[in-house]
Structure formats: C-alpha cells, structure tokens
Amino acid sequence: MECQALISIYSARQRGSWLWPSVTLNEFQGVARRMAAVSEAATMLASVPFFASLDNKRRKALASDGKELSYKAGESIVGEGASGVGFYLILDGKVEVRKGSRVLASLGKGEFFGEMSLIDDQPRSADVVAVTQTRCWALSSWSFNALVKANPDIALPMLKELVKRLRAANSSLID
Ligand code: CMP
Q: Is the CB of residue 84 below 6 angstroms from any atom belonging to ligand 1?
C-alpha cells in the first residue's frame, strides 16, 4: 500500500505531472523511511524463534502493523503497574527488566518483552528500561492478540521462552 503510494508519487514526478502538490519532499522521505523500517522489522521477525512459523507474507503484514520506537539510554519503556498496550521486539540496543532496584533480566536484539500484560490483561509486571540507545518494533495489543489467535503455532515457542524466563527467575531466587 505504502509502496504503491511511493511508486505513484515517484512516477508522477518522473512524468512531470506532480499529481499531489500537497505531498512535500519531507512526506515523501517519511514514507520511504517507514518502508525501510518495515522491511528491517520483517527481516528481524524472521530471526525470532516464535515468528519463524509464519510465512513471509504474514511476517510482512505483521511488520507493517507495527511501529518503530526509539529510546535513549536510561529512558523508561514500560512502567510496572501501567496497563499494557504494546508488545515490543528489540531491533537493536539493550534493555533491563527491573523490579525496584533488582534487575530481573537483560534483553537485547531479537528478544521481546511486554507480552505478559497482553496475555493476561493485568498491569505491567515490571519496569523495562533502555540501558543503551534502543530501537524497538512495537505491536499494539490488538495486533498481538489477533496474531496469536490466527497463528496458534506461535504460542508454543512463546511458552518455551516464558518457561525459560521463569526458570531463570527461580534460580536467581536460590542464588
Ligand atoms: P509485561 O508484564 O507486560 O511488562 C513487563 C515485561 O517485562 C513483562 O511483560 C515481560 O515481558 C518482562 N519480564 C517480566 N519479568 C521478567 C523476567 N523475570 N525475566 C524476563 N522478562 C521479564
């Protein structure tokens, strides 16, 4: 859709018939940037184990449903107790999952967070803070839930990751 818009704008310009005088170069560049971000997200989604079961077309559709968000080092992404409206995939950078002063986990490129509130409709279970400049691909709760319902294959690898995190949390209680 965006791709078609971009091609139409480009060919109108080539033909010398600038059909949409209201489209500025800035807007044109904005669409191009968004397309590059969607393509990067689709590539990243392909490398995430629980999105691996999706075919290319679905991954692209999913990528274009999301939005790229950037955070500075030290910036809060998710606040404990807040209501959950998004699921986040880390495109690059590093975040910490914190409960008070305790660090529960460090997550980096290709890892995800924010799924818990979307699964059980409860407030965010922890803070998530960017520890370096971080870019995330964020999906709305609506897209995330529709995705899991339409593709139950995703649920098992996601469960595996949740179990892995639970085990790590359990062993940190013992340490
Ligand atoms: P959510 O509760 O929506 O928001 C905070 C997120 O931090 C949570 O989803 C998980 O994605 C993540 N999280 C919470 N606890 C842990 C943990 N022990 N290990 C790794 N990630 C966690």
A: yes
- 174 CA from centroid of ligand 1 (Å): 19
CATH number of the domain residue 46 falls in: 2.60.120.10
- Domain that residue 164 falls in: 2-174
**C-alpha 25 to ligand 1 mean position (Å):** 41
The CB of 93 under 6 Å from ligand 1? The reply is no
Q: What angle do CA 38, 40, 41 make, to 5 degrees?
A: 65
pLDDT band at 78 (very low <50, low <70, confident <90, very high): very high
Number of structural domains (the chain) is: 1
Measuring CA to CA, which residue among 75, 68, 118 is closest to residue 94? 75
Entry pTM: 0.80
Distance 166 CA to ligand 1 centre (A): 10
Q: How far apart are CA 137 and CA 90, in angstroms?
A: 6
The Cα 90–Cα 55 span in angstroms is: 21
